[in-house]
Amino acid sequence: MKIDIIGAGPAGLHFASLMKRLNPRHEITIHERGPRSATWGFGVVFSDQALDFLRTDDNELFEYLRPHMESWSDLTINHNGTSVPIAGNGYAAIGRLQMLSLLYQHVERLGVTIRFDTEITSLAQLKGADLILAANGASSWVREENRDKFATTTDIRPNKFMWCGSTMPFDTLSLSFHETGTGVFCAHHYRYTPAMSTFLIEVTDETWKRTGFDRMSNDEAMRHCEKVFARELGGHPILSNNSYWRNFPVIWNGRWHFDNVVLMGDALRPAHFSIGSGTRMAMLDAVALCNAFRETDDDVPAALARFRELRMPVMKKIWDAANRSMRWYEEMDKLVPTQNAIEFAYDYMTRTGRISHAKVREIDPRLAAAYESQHPEVLDAPGA
């Protein structure tokens, strides 16, 4: 089978790896518009649960990537300078470019061809392919040029975010919230090497406007945020890698393929960064599509239909949770001033509706007990 993949991100690379090992005779080419040695962003984070999925679905790749990751066993919520550590939340992180570079080497050893600095702008350029995989990100031109065929809907959310980095090596995955005179500022930050961290800044649209970010350059905005998060940064700078203010797009596709063209990863459905599952979801897409081809003996129409059947139930649960988490952040201007540090950390843990009080008690008994002391009525709730 001749397979052309648009985009050398985790979804396309993982699918290429799985399919080449499934059948070495597959002719697989990945077309990547960027250079081999550069990418946007900083680190990629995985929960322990996500790593467990990777270990189960592709232990060879898990063993290959795991030694290159930073890891920690808890989460920290910083609420106006008060830190609340939360146990039972293991994570690992790796630099995005390092992860991609390792995946490039991995698939090339298997016989996959990657064509860097090659921009595909029309599906006609891939004439003769048995399968065209559009794994070219949230702004996928394949999806946007075929919105009717994919039944695409897009909801641009109001919060502004800027994906930055810092030389401050944070001890844990942390979320820092600070009230300022113009509104609440949030930073999502974690180290991905011993000397580098991701530092993602998020504010509501109202805070963004009141602060005057619409009149600042991106560099001026980062210098302003260094002052807001001076406690967390400890004198370290906020760094840019094509960093600019963006709005998150909630994208849904009623159909996942047409003809021999299929969407995967962020092109199919971005997952809000607040649950740290975007890369995991992209790679699980790859696993499901490969399994669909295995089940259907490389029957493309049957495999593409089966892909949606296999992937939809689990994917939809995570996507819905990500959207509930996203909307929680859209309320942070109201939440941070009205809750103390324990209440806020507890609210964060239960924000998606997937974690009950009993589950909080199981994950972190100290946080549950602290919240119970302030809100004893929670003990009367069903399932508590």
Defining traits:
384 residues; alpha/beta; FAD/NAD(P)-binding domain; nine-stranded mixed sheet; six-stranded mixed sheet; 15 helices; 41% helix; 27% strand
Portion of residues within helices:
40-55%
CATH superfamily of the domain at 2-39 and 95-156 and 250-328: FAD/NAD(P)-binding domain
Rg (CA only): 21 Å
The strand count comes to 15
Distance between the termini: 54 Å
Protein name: FAD-dependent monooxygenase
InterPro entries: FAD-bd (IPR002938), FAD/NAD-bd_sf (IPR036188), PheA/TfdB_FAD_monoxygenase (IPR050631)
Keywords: Monooxygenase, NAD, Oxidoreductase
GO molecular function, one term: monooxygenase activity
Give a nutshell description of this structure.
Helices cover 41% and strands 27% of the residues. It has 15 helices and 15 strands.
Describe the structure.
- This protein has about 375 residues and is α/β, with parallel strands linked by helices.
- The protein has a domain at about 1-40 and about 95-155 and about 250-330: FAD/NAD(P)-binding domain, CATH 3.50.50.
- About 40% of the residues lie in helices and about 25% in strands.
- The chain has helices spanning about 10-20, 50-55, 60-65, 95-110, 140-145, 145-150, 205-210, 220-230, 230-235, 280-295, 300-330, 330-340, 340-350, 355-365, 365-375; strands spanning about 1-5, 25-30, 45, 70-80, 80-95, 115, 130-135, 150-165, 175-180, 185-195, 195-205, 240, 245-255, 255-260, 260-265.
- The strands form two sheets. Strands 3, 4, 5, 8, 9, 10, 11, 12 and 13 form a nine-stranded mixed sheet that branches. A six-stranded mixed sheet has the order 6-2-1-7-15-14.
- The N and C termini lie far apart (about 55 Å).
